[in-house]
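Thread title: Can someone regenerate the structure for this chain?

I was given the following input by a collaborator and told the matching structure tokens would be attached. They weren't. Posting the sequence so someone can regenerate them.
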Amino acid sequence: MDPIRAAGLALSCLDLTDLADPGRAEDVAALAARAVTPHGPVAALCVWPRFIAAARAASGDAVPIATVINFPRGDGSRDAILAELDGALASGANEIDLVFDWRAFLSGRRGFAETLVRSVRAAMPAAMPLKVILETGELPPDAVRPVAEAALAGGATMLKTSTGKTAHGASLEAAATLLCVIAEAPRPVGLKISGGVRSVRDAGAYLALAEARMGADFLAPATFRFGASGLLDAVLATLSGTAPQDTGPDAGHNPGQNPGKAY
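Best answer:
Regenerated them for you:
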């Protein structure tokens, strides 16, 4: 994909993220102040629940505020997760990123994991996006599809690859599988790529994959997102013409080995 097109799409579909642990309100505020760029706004800010107010104060109403629950391990109790959700909604969150209990799923408790997603969906405003984090890098290849299907059955509006907190983030292979599930879904579902997307070249590979499977209209904030922090600098450098030239096939971070393969 042309770098300028990839950068423009990545900017408009970017969940500008600060999930540093423990994190600082001043860092969140500084990031939030960058949400509206000379080339347009990002899709959303994604921060810890405790920093929703700081993000809102710094960005105003310019962009939605997303937050995470059951994060990062995904093994919280139903009551704890719903309490987190209540707090996030009370603080003004506009979007929720929920970590799927993939460990429970892999241990044979698919119904439990799916029901947790359904409980969160039922407790949210009907129109609010629910992005379910599947932690695809930690799943056996043959589990990616059934985990995604369980998240959809629970009410996910977007499938998200990773928390970015494990050794293995997003991959083109996992993204291809998620796109297959999305294409077969009986309702509109989106995809969020998170974990290891650092360059416009990385972003372009995922954008091209999604466009080939779902069409150009899919590459919009309602159905496609990136979750990243450092990607913004690369995007703005490309759009302003100050990015260094790509020097060969190994330049930049390789997001995956085989974009055509789906699990």
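Residues 3-239 form a domain with the TIM Barrel fold (CATH 3.20.20.70).
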